[in-house]
Amino acid sequence: MPAPQQNLRRSLMKNWFAVEAIPIYVIIGGVVVGASWYLGRLATGSQVVWTKKNPTPWNTIKQDEGTKLVTVNQKFEKSWSRDTL
């Protein structure tokens, strides 16, 4: 590389970022990637249904259907399940 280009590149890199800030960039980048992965995982989980067919599923629950995962001291005839995906 000729000397003027090398000097220009050196001054650009010196003023573009501080070497001391590299760990902060790495940590912030890792946090953003981790948060994006976690939110994507939550949004595509088996309990999440992205549909507009039944906007109010709580209206289809009958009186004798249980919706809880764990029922203590309760007797229900049948348990509710969301069939439409």
From TrEMBL:
<keyword id="KW-0472">Membrane</keyword>
<dbReference type="Pfam" id="PF06522">
    <property type="entry name" value="B12D"/>
</dbReference>
<feature type="transmembrane region" description="Helical">
    <location>
        <begin position="21"/>
        <end position="40"/>
    </location>
</feature>
<dbReference type="InterPro" id="IPR010530">
    <property type="entry name" value="B12D"/>
</dbReference>
<keyword id="KW-0812">Transmembrane</keyword>
<protein>
    <recommendedName>
        <fullName>NADH dehydrogenase [ubiquinone] 1 alpha subcomplex subunit 4</fullName>
    </recommendedName>
</protein>
<keyword id="KW-1133">Transmembrane helix</keyword>
